[in-house]
């Protein structure tokens, strides 16, 4: 607002409630209340609402207003003011504390959605809601929806709020860090220029004094020497600079990494009633206790129980053979194996297994004649 | 099959099937593993040979060799992939024919094929296929394990691991060994460089070149198995009948090595190995190991030099990182008397596994690059050999001249 334009309009501005004009009261300030956005001057607000909540004095408006919610208007157009308030309420800032859900915080983040499409749908839905509220379509229904959403998603709303705050602060921190670095760089460059200038100066003086004291024959040699010293010094300086620059870069990248360590609310859960397409977040199952056998069952016998002794003329002498026993030979293993082999294959139906396997192989290149033949002979066994 | 915990064990799959031809055909039908040995096996009727040759060619053409990753006296290892899936990786171990055995295949290869095709378990290396090439070389298509082996991790001082990692590794090892024993297979060469690591961190028991199935009663087994540092005292004493307890001892030695990061009892000869074991765990006597003096190579010790059997506090002192319960488990794996040693099942039932700290998840286990090369080296080695330069040429077994 240009100052002279403002003053010109201010001249004939009149409070719609008490009709006093700026001409009579140059310090007049207008306030609005976000309940109904009716404009009135400060003195009217004081007069009407100091003793507690009262109805809006504008004819036809029955809204009950409170003094503490009056504030200065930000935008000249009251419609814009209202829309901004609604947007703020739906998405961001909260502005009221007393007995109502202050802000709905439809603040889902892109990372929380399955796809870009879902996120876009969400943004569109949010615009629809805002549009409804602004143009007063289905206000009651929309409000109810938002209210329900807010109560259901309190946790993720809070988490996203925290993330936003952190992002803001880390952005600030990065900006200040960069500024600090730039300042240091400038300082270093200045110092470097100074030292270089001084060294060149000193080298030249040294060179002159050498020339003055030395004989005329080695003048060229001295000149070459002086040049070489200068070169060596500047290359040493350059490598030093390089080192510093690398260090700074490393610092910066670590800083960035720290900054990007944010993660979204992990407990968003499934689709809420209002917002669709949220990424499903699985809570990790509690770790199962460690099974040393990893699912295999030791000593599983389907058809028999293993006994510790089977009388046998052939095996009995072994039970007393000290040498065999001392070597650790275990007859139990033999019993176990013999019985297992005797019962092995019961309830295994090769024919069925082969047909199952062949059914599974249908998609793959058909089995050659050879395997089919082999399979048949296998069944015969 | 669902009813039995023993996978695809059917009568025709058992090791001692009388009729080789039938077994071959059945195996080919089930998982098309075999077909291979046919080419070098006894001559068969014409129809059969054609069938097996056909199968063999079919299997052979399913794989493509990419790159050689290791070569030893006994085998060459290639990295390869499936013909129709270039993203798959397999290791192809090509056994050199006639390297030592002038007639027929090397025993190691036969053993490896014979037992690996029986064993399907996450902690045992998978044998995908076997085929023979045109010059009758046997090729084993094995699971590709790019994570190297446990020895590499133990020796690398840049890698730090804790008791939770050890627990995870030991758990996988114990499950692998248990699965072998549950299927009546003795591995007989458990040591850190036979424990290969898959890309997901899973430890897999490999190198079944010395494996055999549990012997029937009164059958002799050789005692010249298991790499010396991991060989149990009963084998050093020349026992010819033994059980899964030999693998459990090796497992205990691996456990101790994981804890200490150096081999626990590393003898330079077999005699030295016995001495070191006696010093560490106590001298075997008739009291603590009834019948030990009957073993062929048992050497009686002077009463004065007998080291008493080490108790629990020795293990606690020597292996503080394992904690009291872990030391208890280690002690049960290292009992001198094989009958007092825990079995693999008993080890897995120990309460060390379920107490804190919980074993590390596979994806969080320490790992190291360069595993493919290491796998190549590991798969080319002969069973029971130490590849330390110092003992490279030492005799594998000394005759003490007692018998």
TrEMBL record, chain A:
It is found in: Nucleus. GO terms for molecular function: cyclin-dependent protein serine/threonine kinase activator activity; zinc ion binding. InterPro entries: MAT1/Tfb3, MAT1_centre, Znf_RING, Znf_RING/FYVE/PHD, Znf_RING_CS. Pfam families: MAT1, zf-C3HC4_5. GO terms for cellular component: transcription factor TFIIK complex. Residues 174-206 form a coiled coil. GO terms for biological process: nucleotide-excision repair; regulation of transcription by RNA polymerase II. PROSITE patterns: ZF_RING_1 (PS00518), ZF_RING_2 (PS50089). Residues 15-58 form the RING-type domain. Keywords: Coiled coil, Metal-binding, Nucleus, Zinc, Zinc-finger. This is RNA polymerase II transcription factor B subunit 3. It comes from Penicillium bovifimosum.
TrEMBL record, chain B:
This is Protein kinase domain-containing protein. Pfam families: Pkinase (PF00069). InterPro entries: CDK (IPR050108), CDK7 (IPR037770), Kinase-like_dom_sf (IPR011009), Prot_kinase_dom (IPR000719), Protein_kinase_ATP_BS (IPR017441), Ser/Thr_kinase_AS (IPR008271). Belongs to the protein kinase superfamily. CMGC Ser/Thr protein kinase family. CDC2/CDKX subfamily. GO terms for molecular function: ATP binding; cyclin-dependent protein serine/threonine kinase activity; RNA polymerase II CTD heptapeptide repeat kinase activity. Signal peptide: none annotated. GO terms for cellular component: cytoplasm; transcription factor TFIIK complex. Residues 356-385 are annotated as: Disordered. Residues 375-385 have a biased composition (Basic and acidic residues). Coiled coil: none annotated. The active site is at residue 189. It comes from the Eukaryota. It comes from Penicillium bovifimosum. PANTHER family: CELL DIVISION PROTEIN KINASE (PTHR24056), CYCLIN-DEPENDENT KINASE 7 (PTHR24056:SF0). Residues 63-353 form the Protein kinase domain. GO terms for biological process: positive regulation of transcription elongation by RNA polymerase II. It catalyses: L-threonyl-[protein] + ATP = O-phospho-L-threonyl-[protein] + ADP + H(+); L-seryl-[protein] + ATP = O-phospho-L-seryl-[protein] + ADP + H(+). ATP binds at residues 69-77, 93-94. Keywords: ATP-binding, Kinase, Nucleotide-binding, Phosphoprotein, Serine/threonine-protein kinase, Transferase.
